[in-house]
């Protein structure tokens, strides 16, 4: 039996040198793009109080949290989500900032996801949160920012599915189901299990119009124009029709901005986080078939922390985007060149001066710690482009590899 001293806990992984370099470059690209778009970086603590999270959130996701008790007896959790801690931060420390307030982050989240085998328990997320704008312009901005972020990385063959959670929330509010029954219906919708959904809906004592809508929603996904035509045939009430108009407006603006080829719609999209209140969206790649980003509007979340403030945002799952990029053969831009400087100790001053100059141009520069003549194998394994030899007389010889 292998000792646990050398094993990793389930759902986490070591990142070796090349993986760290690859991920760091991806994160730098994302961070740079976010900041160029006017978002300012913040960071929340890894530990949060259990009580930070609402009863609704805890009832659904509390069993997936990593919990611990501090020396004062307080129940703590490892951060399971980035949006909620940042909402707390804004409500308690940033009320007087200039709004719209645009924030970004890159940090880890920890959850015990067990629905699928091989699910990780530690995720790296890069995301943005936009506070203080009620209009659909904010929804459009964050969706286009999500699209542009993936394009910035060189990702191809991805789609952003856009949903409108207001419709299902209106329906569920009107029929007032027990929590267990509601969860079954939502799960069937999320999985597009139409047989189970029909059985659950038929067992309810609800009006025919509501039953028709519940059964039809998860089938309404795909091409924007086609699906929007189909949804208008449903017996929607005034509030639901207004929700459809919102989604249609967002999609039309995105298309007018030139990003129509990246979007589809899905009226059966059921957000996995209970704080969403309107437009939601998820990003998928052809290679993975899994969600690489998700986001949406959460206008009521801030009220939990004593501040009324509309908000929307998204998070990119860096682990999955990294995997998708590798599967697509996308290469992150490398440094200009990798140099190794070989010099005797008496010429270290010159060697360090030269290395500083070369690094200013974005190059990787090392000063050899090996005996002269032993650097060949090292250069081969480290993919060194050129070796610069400095002799006792200050002469430099450059050898390309």
UniProtKB/TrEMBL annotation:
L-histidine binds at residues 81-83, 111, 125, 129, 275-276. It is found in: Cytoplasm. Keywords: Amino-acid biosynthesis, Cytoplasm, Glycosyltransferase, Histidine biosynthesis, Transferase. CDD domains: HisRS-like_core. InterPro entries: aa-tRNA-synth_II, aa-tRNA-synth_II/BPL/LPL, HisRS-like_core, HisRS/HisZ, HisZ. One of its GO terms (molecular function) is catalytic activity, acting on a protein. This function is generally fulfilled by the C-terminal part of HisG, which is missing in some bacteria such as this one. Heteromultimer composed of HisG and HisZ subunits. This is ATP phosphoribosyltransferase regulatory subunit. The lineage of its organism: Bacteria, Bacillati, Bacillota, Clostridia, Peptostreptococcales.
């Amino acid at each position: 039996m292998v000792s646990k001293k050398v094993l990793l806990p389930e759902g986490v992984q070591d990142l070796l040198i090349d993986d760290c370099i690859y991920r760091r470059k991806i994160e730098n690209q994302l961070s740079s793009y976010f900041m160029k778009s006017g978002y300012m970086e913040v960071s929340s603590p890894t530990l949060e109080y259990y009580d930070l999270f609402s009863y609704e959130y805890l009832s659904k996701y509390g069993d997936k949290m990593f919990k611990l008790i501090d020396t004062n007896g307080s129940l703590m959790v490892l951060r399971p989500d980035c949006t909620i801690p940042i909402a707390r931060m804004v409500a308690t420390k940033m009320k007087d900032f200039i709004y719209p307030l645009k924030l970004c982050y890159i940090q880890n989240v920890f959850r015990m996801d067990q629905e699928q085998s091989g699910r990780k328990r530690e995720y790296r997320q890069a995301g943005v949160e936009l506070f203080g704008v009620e209009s659909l312009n904010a929804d459009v901005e964050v969706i286009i920012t999500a699209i542009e972020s993936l394009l910035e990385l060189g990702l191809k063959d991805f789609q952003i599915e856009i949903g409108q959670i207001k419709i299902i929330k209106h329906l569920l509010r009107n029929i007032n189901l027990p929590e267990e029954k509601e969860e079954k219906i939502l799960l069937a919708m999320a999985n597009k299990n139409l047989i189970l959904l029909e059985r659950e809906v038929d067992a309810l004592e609800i009006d025919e119009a509501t039953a028709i809508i519940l059964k039809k929603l998860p089938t309404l996904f795909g091409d924007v124009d086609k699906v929007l035509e189909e949804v208008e045939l449903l017996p929607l009430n005034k509030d639901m029709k207004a929700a459809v108009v919102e989604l249609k407006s967002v999609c039309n603006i995105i298309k007018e901005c030139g990003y129509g080829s990246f979007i589809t719609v899905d009226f059966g999209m059921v957000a996995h986080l209970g704080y969403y209140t309107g437009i939601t969206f998820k990003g998928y790649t052809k290679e993975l078939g899994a969600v690489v980003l998700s986001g949406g509007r959460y206008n009521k979340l801030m009220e939990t922390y004593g501040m009324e403030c509309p908000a929307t945002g998204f998070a990119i799952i860096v682990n999955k985007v990294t995997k998708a990029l590798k599967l697509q053969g996308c290469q992150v831009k490398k440094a200009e060149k990798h140099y190794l400087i070989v010099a005797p100790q008496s010429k270290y001053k010159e060697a360090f001066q030269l290395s500083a100059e070369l690094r200013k141009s974005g190059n990787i520069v090392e000063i050899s710690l090996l005996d002269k003549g032993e650097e060949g194998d090292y250069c081969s394994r480290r993919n060194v482009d050129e070796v610069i030899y400095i002799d006792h007389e200050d002469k430099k010889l450059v050898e390309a590899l």
